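Researcher: Next sequence.
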Amino acid sequence: MSNDTNVFRVIWGPQRFYLSLGWKTLIAFALVVFLPMGGLLFITEQTMRDALETETAHTLEANLRGAWAAYQRPLEDVRIALVQASSNEQTSAALAQHDATALFRILARQARRFSYVDLWFAVDKNETVRGRMLGALGNHFNFGAGLGRALGTLRENLITTELLARELFTSEDPERFAELPPLVLAQVIVAPVKEQGALIGVMLLDDNQLLLQQIQNQLTIENTYAALIQDDRVVATAGLPGEPFPVGAEIGNALDRAIESGQVYNDSREEGRRRTMVLAEPILNGDYRSVGGLVLTVNDEKIINHLARNSRQVYIFIALGITMSLAIAFLAYRDTVRPLSAIVAAQNAFAEGDHDVRTEIVTRDEFESLGSGFNRMAEAVVAHDRRLAQYTALSSLVNLSMSPQELLQGTLGKVADISRASLGVIYLIEEGSNRLTPKAAHALDLEELETLKIGEGVPGQVALERETRVIDDFDGSNGLVLHLGVGNITPRQLAYFPLVYRGELLGLLLLGFAQPYPAEELVLLEHLSRQVAIILNDTSAQHKIDDLLNHDPITGVANRTYFTTELDRHFNEAQRYGTDLSLLMVDIDHFRQFADRFGYHMADVVLTTVSGVLQKSVRKSDILARFSENKFALILPHTDLEQGLITAEKVRKNLIGTSVGQLDRERVTISIGAVAYPDPAVQSPVEMVRRADQALIKAKQGGRNRVETAA
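Model: Next structure:
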């Protein structure tokens, strides 16, 4: 490898023929695996005694019958319990009314009885989840064909084994089921509920030692082991020493194909000096399709002596395969590391600022293409940087702490400087209308500019068609003129650019030039317009985020963070200018009882109703915020204590006459604590909040539904 003239070289001689990295890896794998294993199988199978195979196969078949019975037994009691629960009128009523609390209690009783069942659900006839132990309601999950049969005309209660999505389990307990594969094997028990839906229990079979231990206890033959398989791997065993198929082990293509096609598998395997007979039957789901298999294996010690006589030949095959695979592996290593090192070195040099670096790789495989691709990428980056260097300055203008008007005006001024435009206007689409409103102007009087309709005139057509348009020899018929201070002049050329971001029209950019702009640089102006659209979109998004961060999501009023900021600001102004400032702390009486008796939805209704009454009862200049779970705070600028008490009493009475949702017989009242500045006991915003809380406590201790001060 050399680096003269910044070129990294790897050049194979002309005698090399093309061999891709994939073929090299495949050949090495085949030599390492298939050659020794093929020799081992050839020698042992030629001398295997048919009688021993027949005897072992019959033994496994007898044990498999008992294993199937043990496989079904754990959930039979669950099915019976669910059938009893589903026939209960309370269950039917709870499912019909979508009563999540009642359904939770029904499922919780089953969960306490059958701790080995992982998930419990109650679904309606539309297969929507209406009850569960944990997780959100209203979801749709695929529980397999069993659910459809249970909800259909036959209304069967049944137990099936299904392949279920991992999301079904992680939606219930993300931490416990985080390591599950995308599809998992599980037993599903479904009991229909009187045309309302069904109750469902799900037991995860992946790594379920309890089930396999129960199956293991049914086996009567020594050295026999049971396992559950899914796809091409083992998902559950009894966890006994000496198991030929531990959890996670691959089962082999032949066994996988047999199970997948729904056929019984009966064969043998050799592992070293041990011979293992394998018998497997597929597990069918509700659609009678194979989703896994139940496997029994038995170690036959009689075969060990027979295999020992052939060990020398087996070792010869293995040694030959290892030797050849090492040779191919060495070639693959050399053909991989050297060109990769050259490409990585060139990439690092390029990343450190050497944009003249290039590669020269002639290997007659994929690395040659990779090196050429790096060179094309480097050249494209350099050309792109040269072309856009003078236009990247616009991104430095983006400061989301600026007001929207300041950002618009600053962006337009920067665009005018870069493009050498004599005048400019940014029009924005008013939300919910088809009008373009001027929001920023350069060298024009913004007040004199008119609102435009989309589709009318040149600007409206540009907005409608979303295509750039340039007008040469402009005659000034629409009144656009440059304000020069000592006189006015009409521009000679106008360019209209639609401001589009991700397919959404945000507005229009108008630029006017005293001299015609070079046509070949028009594409650069279009690039500028796209940057302006990105800035407009980012600004809008940031202000929406700021609004969400400063407001309570339930009531829509300001949150505690915003309250603290505003109280600090108003308190400092009151101290500086000697003005009055009042603070009301409002608490909803017996709020927890509403939540406990009527549910959290009704508690939210109470919160929104109270906040609505508070907003309607105060001035627009007053600041209402949700201070905590059931407490609101009101900042009343330029209000002394007497006026604050009048406002508090007005709020309290207004709420008494307001109905709250469906609580016709329940009366919602509030207690209010009031404090005002100036007050010798209030020297900071923190002390003002503390004094208001003291007054609130006094009001609640005095019987609630009243207004008190801390004095």
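Model: The longest strand covers residues 183-193. Residues 482-487 have pLDDT under 50 and may be disordered.
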